[in-house]
Specification:
- The complex is a heterodimer.
- By secondary structure, chain A is an alpha+beta fold.
- Helices cover 27% and strands 34% of the residues of chain A.
- Chain A has a 5-stranded mixed barrel. In chain A, strands 8-9-10-12-11 form a 5-stranded mixed barrel, surrounded by 4 helices.
- In chain A, α4 (185-197) packs antiparallel against α5 (223-231).
- Chain B is of the alpha+beta class.
- Chain B is 51% helix and 15% strand.
- In chain B, strands 1, 2, 3, 4, 8, 9 and 10 form a 7-stranded antiparallel beta sheet that branches.
- The chains are: A alpha+beta, B alpha+beta.
- At the A-B interface, α1 and α4 of A face α2, α3, α4, α5 and α11 of B.
- The complex binds protoporphyrin IX containing FE and FE2/S2 (inorganic) cluster.
- Protoporphyrin IX containing FE binds at residues 47, 50-51, 54-55, 57-58, 61, 95, 98-99, 102-103, 106, 118, 134, 137-138, 140-141, 144, 178, 181-182, 185-186 of chain B.
Chain lengths: 283, 345
């Protein structure tokens, strides 16, 4: 600034050379700002190829079961022996809450076990990585219709895979399979805690050395009391023990609620979480 | 009490300043969205909003924190300071969008109150790696809110300058909280050299600038010793520019000695508005004019010209054979003192 140039903000014009200098400073600032925008935006980890059909509603037909977790069982074909092949679509409620209560109501009003009914449900699809989750967006009103089945429903095959110890991360399937990106790890952790303690069934994601993922439904004797406890373990790598079974396109791990307390005191390895680090199933 | 907080209007310079802020915000968001769309396909709208506004708010915070020391190092940055509070309020708005979106995204529609959830969902307060980093962002945002809400001169006048200044110094606490918010948040789940480098460079820049300006000021603020009469030697008359001042520190107070119209007068260096350095101002239309926001004072009595009512302390100046001396005893604010007359040979 020349000696006689003095800036007074409330005067209409800044002195000439000062104004030129200011334009230079602003140009430098805008250039820096552009660089930061491009660096930060371009430096994000790739986002999962999962989808949430927000605002779009779909109708699905099938049998609903609450065991081991709320799901819609749909028949996708028959195997070589002529037995039904089924797929389980996880059912979740609107927001961060589970769908069990909706169907407890139906059970009460219909006076029949759920698996003796065929349901027509309306909601929004959430899908990716081979799994499908269905949001009952309109809550109770998402149950459009149910009619008694004339013949018993296709039997559910449960294959016992024995006692297993599994290393991975607990996620909430609603966010993980499409509603949020990223739907796992540290930044998503408190949301996973909210969702699971709100009744959305916890799922464990594991990964082998080749990067192949497995999704395991976690169940306990009393899902109401265990969901709050297990929610606290979401979003960080850990090992959990239990009885593993295969149920149509899902694995199910039945854990002992008392064991969770021990896991809480485990020391976890610092570092990136799923899916960037080799997370393995220990068997 | 001053009336000026009602008198300051949206003048042309402020409009330009605000326009530049808006343009910068727009440019950042546009570049962020385009880059993310291109390089990170599949990003959700919510994540886009959260990340774009979070990073922009932190960047704006760096600019805000740089302006003070830059002005102390080079007066040509002063125009950036003139309307800094609009920059501060804009930063708060951007940060609030980030915070509100995050709270809605991660905590709403659950089984507890979203604000309770921010603090109670993740409870690993005893772990660094798993620490509930969102709480740090929340505390930072609360500080920014208090600052933005009290940024108007009305609050400066009503809370008192000391309390107001302390409140606004909390910005450094908030800066620390936000750095940790990012280090314990996104850096834990997506460790990235670029992000850590940017954060580190930002931190070095901010702390380096403050230290540099601090050292420079400390050197200039060295107390002068009193002579036998109890006066301090300010310096040679020739060192004081016409319509400008030099400053001296006496009894821990900074005093500005102004030269104007063949006269010398001394007043406190501290502007009543926001403690701006009056000695770095100029005499404009016969008034000492503060370099920060242009508050004015008459040099011989330290009073703002009517209708304004701010007053600063005055001092006696003595001129002996081209040497300027100051009596370190302050007179009550607004006391008229006769200027020392510069004899023309
Ligand atoms: C209620 C207050 C706040 C909450 C709940 C909050 C929450 C979050 C969350 C969840 C993330 C991670 C999002 C992700 O990357 O997927 C994040 C990242 C971030 N936050 Fe905040 N935040 C808050 C306040 C602030 C404030 C006041 C600032 C700065 C002025 C800030 C700056 C950032 C930055 C720079 C990031 C990293 C952005 C990136 O991923 O590139 N946050 N915040
Ligand atoms: S500090 Fe604002 S005018 Fe002096």
């Amino acid at each position: 600034m020349r000696k006689n140039e003095f800036y007074i903000g409330y005067l209409p014009k800044a002195p000439g050379t000062l104004a030129r200098w200011l334009r230079g400073i602003i140009a430098v600032l805008l250039a820096l700002l552009s660089l930061v925008a491009v660096f930060v935006a371009g430096n994000q980890q790739p986002f999962a190829e999962t989808y949430f059909e927000y605002g779009k509603s779909t109708q699905l037909k099938g049998v609903v079961s609450l065991t081991p977790v709320p799901r819609l069982i749909v028949k996708t074909g028959v195997d070589l022996k002529g037995q039904a092949v089924t797929k389980s679509i996880l059912l979740v409620n609107f927001g961060k809450s589970g769908a069990a209560e909706i169907f407890h109501n139906v059970e009460k009003t219909s006076g029949r076990p759920l698996t003796a009914l065929e349901f027509t449900l309306q909601g929004s699809l959430i899908y990716g990585e081979g799994k499908v989750v269905f949001e009952l967006t309109d809550q109770h009103a998402s149950v459009l219709d149910y009619v008694p089945l004339n013949q018993p429903y296709y039997p559910v095959k449960m294959n016992d895979l024995g006692e297993q110890s599994i290393y991975g991360e607990i996620i909430d399937p609603k966010c993980y399979f499409g509603v949020m990106k990223p739907g796992f790890g540290k930044v998503h952790r408190s949301c996973a805690i909210r969702c699971i303690s709100g009744g959305i069934s916890p799922v464990m994601v594991t990964k082998n050395e080749n990067g192949d993922k497995q999704f395991i439904l976690l169940t306990a004797d009393n899902s109401a009391t265990s969901s709050h406890k297990i929610s606290k373990l979401a979003g960080k790598p850990l090992t959990i023990n239990g009885q593993l079974t295969q149920m149509d396109d899902w694995l199910v791990l039945h854990y002992n609620e008392q064991e969770l307390a021990k896991i809480q005191h485990q020391k976890f390895v610092a570092g990136p979480l799923l899916p960037h680090q080799g997370i393995t199933i220990c068997n | 009490m001053g009336h000026r907080y009602t008198a300051v209007l949206w003048n042309r310079q402020k409009k330009i300043y605000d326009l530049v802020i808006l343009l910068a915000i727009f440019l950042y968001l546009l570049l962020f969205i385009l880059t993310a769309r291109f390089l990170s396909p599949g990003i959700t709208g919510e994540t886009m909003v959260i990340r774009a506004t979070g990073s922009l708010a932190l960047l704006m915070l760096h600019v805000i924190l740089s302006i003070g020391p830059l002005c102390r190092l080079n007066r040509r940055f002063l125009p950036l300071l003139y309307n800094r509070r609009h920059l501060g309020v804009s930063m708060f708005v951007i940060a609030a969008i980030h915070g509100v979106f995050s709270v809605l995204q991660f905590h709403s529609l659950g089984n507890v109150n979203p604000l309770v959830s921010v603090f109670a969902s993740n409870q690993d307060y005893d772990s660094l790696h798993n620490f509930p980093f969102q709480t740090l962002g929340f505390l930072g945002l609360t500080i920014f809110f208090l600052m933005a809400a009290t940024s108007h001169d009305f609050w400066l006048a009503n809370l008192g300058p000391r309390f107001w200044k302390t409140l606004h110094m909390m910005v450094y606490v908030a800066y620390g909280l936000i750095i940790m918010h990012v280090m314990l948040g996104i850096v834990q789940s997506e460790p990235s050299v670029i992000l850590v480098t940017l954060l580190g460079a930002g931190f070095l820049w901010i702390s380096g600038l403050h230290l540099w300006a601090g050292f420079k000021e400390a050197a200039a603020d060295r107390e002068k010793s009193l002579d036998r009469r109890g006066y301090v030697l300010v310096g040679e008359l020739g060192q004081i520019p016409e319509n400008g001042a030099v400053t001296v520190v006496v009894n821990g107070e900074k005093v500005a000695v102004f030269r104007y119209d063949g006269k010398l007068s001394a007043i406190s260096n501290v502007c009543k508005h926001q403690n701006g350095p009056l000695g770095e101002g100029k005499i404009v239309d016969g008034c000492v004019t503060c370099p920060w926001h242009g508050y004015q004072y008459l040099p011989h009595n330290g009073c703002s010209p009517p209708p304004f009512t701010e007053k600063v302390a005055t001092y006696d100046v003595l001129l002996e054979e081209e040497k300027v001396y100051l009596n370190p005893k302050p007179y009550p604010e607004g006391t008229t003192r006769n200027p020392a007359i510069i004899r023309q040979n």
